[in-house]
Structures are given as C-alpha cells and as structure tokens.
Amino acid sequence: KAGVTQTPRYLIKTRGQQVTLSCSPISGHRSVSWYQQTPGQGLQFLFEYFSETQRNKGNFPGRFSGRQFSNSRSEMNVSTLELGDSALYLCASNGGGGGANVLTFGAGSRLTVL
Amino acid sequence: AQRVTQPEKLLSVFKGAPVELKCNYSYSGSPELFWYVQYSRQRLQLLLRHISRESIKGFTADLNKGETSFHLKKPFAQEEDSAMYYCASAGGTSYGKLTFGQGTILTVHP
Q1: Using CA atoms, how far apart are residues B37 and B104, in angstroms rounded to an integer?
Q2: For A14-41, how does the pLDDT look when each residue is reduced to its tens digit (9 = 90+)?
Q3: Which site among B25, B36, B48, B97 would you substitute to test the A interface, given the most A Cβ atoms closer than 10 Å to its Cβ?
Q4: Chain A residues near residue B86 by CB distance under 8 angstroms
C-alpha cells in the first residue's frame, strides 16, 4: 500500500506570494489532517478534512486554507506569504479503523519564504 | 486548551540502560494519549497509544491520571532507539487534531 504522498517536497517562495501544497492519503483513507512544523513552535494542527468537509480547524489566520476532493486528495493554500510561514508542512491520513486520531504522516513539504 | 509538556529536550543514555521519556498533559476530560517517533531521515510514525496498552519495540507507557502523565519507558535501551520522540494528546471529538509536545531527542550511546 502506498503511503501518504506530499508534493512538492521542497519549494521556495517570496513574501507576498501564495503557495498550494498537495496531499494524497493512503488509499481508502478519507480523513486528511495538516500540520505545520517549525523549530520554535513545534507541530501545530492546521485543519482536518473528511469527505470534503472541514471538521476541525486550528488557530491559524485565514491566509491558511484547505480543501479536499472527492477522491480524498487534499490541498492546502497559504496566501500572502510571510517569512514566518517558512516551515515543514505535514499531511497525515487516517482510515478510521484504528481510531480517529491514529495518523499516518507523509514526508512533508518544506516551504522556504524569502 | 490542551497542553502537552515534555520537559527534556535532550536525553542521553548508554546501551542497555533504562530510559524514561517524560510527558505531562493538561486536559479536563479523558484524553487519548500517544507517543510518536521520528527516526533519522524517516517519517513521523505512531509508536504506541494508551488505549492499546501494548508494548512496541520494548517500549511501554502508562497513563497516570492522578499525575496527568504518560511517560514512555524501556528497560534496556538500544542504539536503534535513538530518535525524536513526541508525546501527543487528543480529546473529545478531535478528528485528527493532536496536540504535540515539543519532543525529546533520545541518543543511545554504544
């Protein structure tokens, strides 16, 4: 079974630009969560989607948004990038069988904002 | 709000020695507790969770509600246990929302 796939793995943007990150969950998994990981703040929850609906949201500004498609693939978007948005963005999927919070993580998308 | 505290950023032990990674949580209800691990150049992965009450790779963790702790223990550390360990909690209808501690880097010396 293929794992959680995130693209792109690395990207560099400049302040003010926007970025879209993609996540393909494990086949059959319908829940996708997103996390931001930084050295200072650690792992912080962004949002979670299930069957194209956002069920949970973390404490991030409205510049951070996401969506999920009918095939469970998810995207997150960050608009008007700031230097502080430089981070590793992790996607995780959950199949429900082992519990709603048993997450399988992807390798991450490392965003650098210059 | 939930909070997870891992007081040690770094922990070093010698091979064969016991190891304990500390984790304290704050949550008014009944949380679900986890330990996730990230080995060098690998993805973050689930090590164990309190509901399962199982031993994974020789590690165990007991939920102590009185002390609000979920410490991770292993009686005899191995070099391959060297990794970053994260304690995490989830409560109620959290739907994939885990609150992570800052992590502890465990180094097991030969």
Answers
A1: 10
A2: 999 999 999 999 999 999 999 999 999 9
A3: B97
A4: 43
